[in-house]
Each structure stands twice: as C-alpha cells, then as structure tokens.
Amino acid sequence: MSDKLPPNSSFATKTVHAGTQHIEGAVNTPIFQSTTYKLTEERYAGWAAGAQHTMLYARLSSVNSEAVVQKICALEGAEDGELFASGMAAISTVLMGLLSSGDHVVANTDVYGGTYGLMTGELPRFGIEVTMADMREPSSYEASIQENTKLLYIETLSNPCLKVCDVEAMASIAKKHNLLLVIDNTFTSPWGCSPISMGCDLVIHSTTKYLGGHSQVVGGAVVGRADLIAELFAKKVHFGGGVDPHSAFLLEQGIRTLHARMPIHVNNSFELATRLLEHEKISDVFHPSHPTHPDYEVAKRIMPKGTGMLAFVVEGGDEGAMNFMRKLKIIFEATSLGGVESLIEVPATSSHMFVPEDVRHEAGVIPGFVRLSVGIEDVEDLWNDIVQALD
Ligand SMILES: Cc1ncc(COP(=O)(O)O)c(C=O)c1O
Which residues of the chain have pLDDT under 70? Predict the structure, then answer.
C-alpha cells in the first residue's frame, strides 16, 4: 500500500507520492477496474462502522479513488475527503447534503454558472433560501446573514471575472456567526491557495480542471473536516455521484505533475496579461497577480503564487470577441480550463450562457469579455497567436 511520507515532505513530494498505492511494487497506483470487492470479515466490520473508506462497492470507494482522496487531502492539509463523478456532483452533494428545508445560504453573485443554476433553480424547490452577495466585500456577506443561515459559500477566484475572495475575512465572519464556510478552490488548485489553513471547513474542486490537468477526465472532490466528510459520504451513497475507478486512475496521474505544471501556467498568464495591457484592441485585462487588478493586495495574501487564468475585453463587443477567437490557431475555442492546452471562451455564449444578462453585466461580464485558461505551451507562440488573431 502507500508508503508513509516523512511528515515535513514538501508540496512537490506530496503531489508525486502521497496516497499512491504501491501494490505488488508498482510505482504508481494500478487501475482496479472492479465494481465490487469480495466481502471479508474486515469489510463487513467496515460496513457496520459506516462503510467510509471501506472497499465494498466502487460507487462508495475503490482503490483508485482512495489513492486520490489521500493525495488531495495531503495537498490541501485536510482531515478527510470524498471523490465525485464531477465538480457539480461534489457541489450538489455538499449543498443538498448539508442543507435542509428552512436553511439559508449566502453565495457570491458571480458564482460559477452551474452552481448559480443549482442555487437559484434547484435549492429553492427544496425550501432552501439563497442570497447572493458580493464576494469582494465580506461585509456584504455579513449583512446577508439571517437567523436561518447555515453556510457561506465562496470561490477563491470568481469565474469568469477573477475577483479575489478575502478568504481570511470570510473565515472570521463564519466563525463569529458559527456558520460553515465552503470554498470552491478550482481556479487556483491546492498549489495556489490553501483555504483550510485560512479557516475554511470544506474545500471543493472540479478536478476536471487543474488537478486532472490534461482535459482528459471529469471529476470532483470535497475535502476538509472529518465530521462533515462522514456526513457527505452518506449523502454520496444516496445521491449516487461517486467516481469510476478508471477516472480516478487518470486523475491521479494528472495530479502527480500539478506542482510542475502550475508555475508554467502562472508565468505564461502573467506574461500575456502584461503584453495584452499594452495592446490597442484590448480595453481591459484582469489578472489577479498584476498590480493593475483591483484585488491585487488581497491576491498577494490569499493566493501569492498566482493562477493561470486571465480575462480581457476585446474591442467590438461579443461579436468582436467571437471573431478574434475564431482566428486563433494554437489556442482552442472551448469551455473548461486548467489543462495543459490553452482554452478560450466568451462566457456570455458558453459557460455563463444561462446566467441572466443583467446578472452577468452586474458581475462585470461586459460585451467583448473573454476568458483565457493559459496552458503550458511556449509563451511566444501563444502571444504570436493572439497578435495575429487581433490583427
Ligand atoms: C469554478 C468551477 N466550479 C465547478 C465547476 C463544475 O465542475 P464540473 O464541470 O467538473 O462538474 C466548474 C466548471 O467549469 C468551475 O469552473
């Protein structure tokens, strides 16, 4: 099974080794493509104790999902975790699993489109109230707290506007009012931000993004407080959003190079942001690590290593942005993010299509707004591609 790592191992060593199961001397975890496991005395006992982390049935857990859970927990500094079939399966299990009819949740106005749909279209059907507040202003979250508020929901960086959340300030509000603090840390990955060390109770990832890193596997993870994870495990069993062993296997391979990929994403995106700021056809550039970003100071504290995400506004509105994207040769016009290849989208026509226009504009997704997930290609090639498309 997995070898014990020295407790002071670095992030890089954990990405490679934490959780990895060296069965029969394999240097990485082999695929255990089995839907079920033979029942033994030990497993019956595990079942009786609640079944979490017991190899019984692959919807609950598998050798491959356990390896990944241990790895992500090591990277996030979490007590425990669970894997899911997608980021949305993770988010919906957290919200539907921890909230009940009569409860209230506060979330950011510009939350990821799928989460927005869940919060505004589904939760109210089950009697769960939602208030949208401005993540940039922790005081607006505090002002939204009601008698029945149970949970504050934040994102490290908002999608697609890349506003930075002051996670530490949110944690002190959550603590003061005795509320759960849940964060979607997809946009920075555990490499870029450590929300548990700042006071978050649960950290969610769409592992489809930076953790998988190669646009080859859809998945989700929730890590954090062991008591909450145990509660969520029971909900996962009921809701059914567990992960297939093959997907978990692919995810583990992706995570093993996270620390090597992230600095290239970050350096490339910073360089492109700096050059785009000088380009005459670009009116606005949003990069949290650039001093021109309104949240620069917060970003330095919350996510000092940066992100590979970048947004900018192309002249000519959404049509101008679409024309620009269609001329790109290396950067693919596609939704999603965090993969080794650069992906670009106009959120208004893709990831945020179903968010009402006024809500989008209010959040800063103005006409011509594009989001670029900067890959690990050569930065000069990326820049030349952008320049030829803008020209
Ligand atoms: C910030 C964020 N959270 C969650 C999700 C949902 O993840 P998935 O597509 O894996 O369900 C996405 C997807 O784009 C996202 O960008």
Answer: 1-3
In this structure, the strands spanning 309-314 and 332-333 are: unpaired
- pTM higher than the cut 0.85: yes
Does 296 participate in catalysis according to the annotation? Answer: no
> What does the alpha-carbon distance between residue 367 and residue 4 come to, in Å, rounded to a whole number?
52
Pocket residues for ligand 1 (CB within 6 Å)? 86-88, 112, 114, 155, 159, 184, 186-187, 206, 208, 218, 220, 336
Q: How many helices (H) and strands (E) does the chain have?
A: 15, 12
378 in catalytic set: no
The DSSP annotation for 253-298 comes to HHHTTHHHHHHHHHHHHHHHHHHHTT-TTEEEEE-TTSTTSTTHHH
Choose the CATH number for 11-255 among 2.40.37.10, 1.50.10.10, 2.30.30.40, 3.40.640.10.
3.40.640.10
Do residues 315 and 281 make contact, with C-beta atoms less than 8 angstroms apart? Answer: yes
CA 370 to chain centre: 19
Catalytic, out of 71, 136, 163, 209: 209
CA distance 154 to 142: 13
190 preceded by a cis bond (ω within 30 of 0):
no
Helices assigned H by DSSP within 137-257: 138-144, 167-176, 189-192, 226-239, 245-255
Look up the CATH superfamily of 259-390. Aspartate Aminotransferase, domain 1 (3.90.1150.10)
Provide the 8-state DSSP code for 198. G
Q: Is 58 exposed, middle or buried (0-12, 13-18, 19+ CB in 10 A)?
A: buried
Delimiting residues of CATH 3.40.640.10 domain(s) in the chain? 11-255
pLDDT of residue 2: 56
Amino acid 1: pLDDT: 47
